[in-house]
Every structure is written in structure tokens, then in C-alpha cells.
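subagent[fold] <- orchestrator: predict structure for attached chain, return C-alpha cells only, no commentary.
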Amino acid sequence: MQSTGTETDSKANSNAAASTAAAARGASAPARCGVLSERDPDAELVARVGARDAGAVRALVLNKLPRLIALATRMLGDRMEAEDVAQEAFVRIWKQAPHWRSGEAKFDTWLHRVALNLCYDRLRGRRETPAETLPDEPDPAAAPEQRLEARSRDERVRAALAALPVRQREALVLTYYQELSNLEAAGLMGISADALESLLARARRTLRIQLAGEQAGKDSV
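subagent[fold] -> orchestrator:
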């Protein structure tokens, strides 16, 4: 059973290399993948950014920054690095917007791929050693003991997520935290829907085992 998972990860990593290389080319130019059948909701805003409309730039930052930071934080496990990734992504947007051609690629898909590529660059730079994770801000309306428990739970989940193999982590982040459909996530990762399902299944199983083991350890103390 272990060898089967290894083979699947190997295939996924092989597909990832091809996907990353193709996406690196696409980070400086929109993908040429045929005309989209549905209207891109960001097309008008990106066109205005391309025309150097300051109001459009502020609107795009307001719309996209929180999701970019959330994506990068969960991929990297480090809020400061995530903010750097988001800043770099917006530099790419600023450069690309005047050349963006609506209808050939969905802007949000391109932006996710740019952010993921930037995350992979940083992970390769530190040899995929997960950074110390930072908890989300607790609910200020909650009681002190509830805030403490929520922080502790979040730290455990974030640490477990950061310890996953990077492709499993990417699959889980895209589908669960970024709320992309399986088809959208598979397309971004350059793999089939079946391969994505396999990555998700292993990621969820690993998280369950790790979190259950931590809870058992706490209960035995």
C-alpha cells in the first residue's frame, strides 16, 4: 500500500514539474488556452488597472489581497513570507494588466497560479522545511478560555498542514481553504481530477492520524 502512494506522489510530482514550468511562462503572459465560455468577472477591473486607474488598483487589492495572503500563509506557514508573496503577485499584476486579453484565461486562475509559483520558489529556497506556523487572530468576543482553546486548535491544524507533502498541502489548500472546485484545483495543479482526489484522500488521512495522535497524547498526560 505504501509503494502505491509513493508511485502516485511520484506521478503527481512529475506532473507538478511540468505544470510549474508551464505556469512560470504564464506568469508573465496570459495563458493561450482558447476562448472562455463564461465572462470573467475581473475583466473590466483588470482593464482599468491596465489603464493605470488608481481606483481600480485599490479595488483589486481590496478584492484579492485577503485570499492571496490566506493562500500563501497556508502554503508557507509564515505570515510575513505570505505578505511578501502577495506583494510580488501584485507587482506581476501591475506589469501584466496592460497586456491582459480577456477571454483567453480567467484572471483569478492566473493569479492563483502566480501566487502558487511564488510559494514554490520559497519552499525550494528553504528545501521545503515548514516554518513555524502562526495562529489566526482569536475571536475577541469569545471567553478567554475559548480563545485559548481556539488558538491551540488552530496551531495544531496549521502545524499538521505545514508538515504535509507540498503537493498534498496544495490540493487541500486550494479545495478547502480557497474553496475552488476539484476541476479548478486540478487544472491549476496540472493533474487529473482522479489524481487530485488521491492527493486529497491522503492529505486528509494524514491530518486525521496526526491530530488524533496529538489528542491521544494530551489525554494520557
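orchestrator: received. Logging for downstream: The mean pLDDT is 76. The chain has one domain: 2-220.
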